[in-house]
Amino acid sequence: MDWDKLRVFHAVADAGSFTHAGETLHLSQSAVSRQISGLEESLNVALFHRHARGLILTEQGEILYRTAHDVFAKLAQVETSLTESRERPSGSLKVTTTVAFGSVWLTSRMREFIERYPEIDVSVVLADTELDIAMRQADVAIRMTPPVQPDLVRRHLLTLRYHVYASPDYLEARGSPRSAEDLDDHDLIVYGEDASPPVDGLNWLLDAGRPKGSPARRPVLQVNSIYGIYRAVSSGLGIGALPDYMSRQAAELVEILPELRGPEIELFFAYPEELRNSARVIAFRDFLLEKMAEGAI
Description:
Strand content: 15-25%
Order of helices and strands: HHHEEHEHHEEEEHEEHEEEH
Helix content: 25-40%
CATH class of the largest domain: Alpha Beta
Number of helices: 9
Structural class: alpha/beta
Distance between the termini: 51 Å
CATH superfamily of the largest domain: Periplasmic binding protein-like II
Largest sheet: 5 strands, mixed
CATH topology of the largest domain: D-Maltodextrin-Binding Protein, domain 2
Strand order of the largest sheet: 4-3-5-12-6
Mean pLDDT: 87
Shape: elongated
Number of strands: 12
């Protein structure tokens, strides 16, 4: 196959249109279209269904795209290994983690990392859906569940625990619960049905102290992110559970019922096997371990 045509095909499949692919490749729409037509003629198959709203891969196009995607991912890894200096970490580093952990803990520490390693170009992708780092959608990931892909290197970072908080205004107005049973008389803020919490059972406040088999408490508010729960608790709306890494943000809140603990969350650092000896990955991993060992979580 013609390598240039394959490169154009991969860009078109990613972009979903000739126009957007042309912008990425700095080619005109007509030039992109000619390259795709030439590739289809050489293979004697149609690679795209063309319609007014864009392009959709045919079955044969899907097969070619998966293979091309693998090839380009491998080439990116080879390029990294050929150009990166192990003594002086440099190059691009794309990090992905959850929206809450990334927003609250990680991004506030990136200034120190970047000042320490100015030749590493860092980008952070916050998403509660996991990016496929094996396919190089990101270089490394900080995850709340153990990675299951066999071709990933993983390192356990720490165990996160939840604590129960309320605002001073709420406690002044409603009083402080002295036991889990007292939560029956309080307003609780929990994850909503549309949330994707990292582990099951994070709405444990609805059942804590309740007799086995009895109905769960009715929350005053459901929120689909832990940061949203924090903001609602801070406003004085009710009581909520927050993880260790939000301790700085929760400094103005009051921890209550310290004997209550929800499910533990294991925090992992993961990256592809091909990046095991990458200087920039090692530097970032060691930085995370250093910050967490300092108790900065």
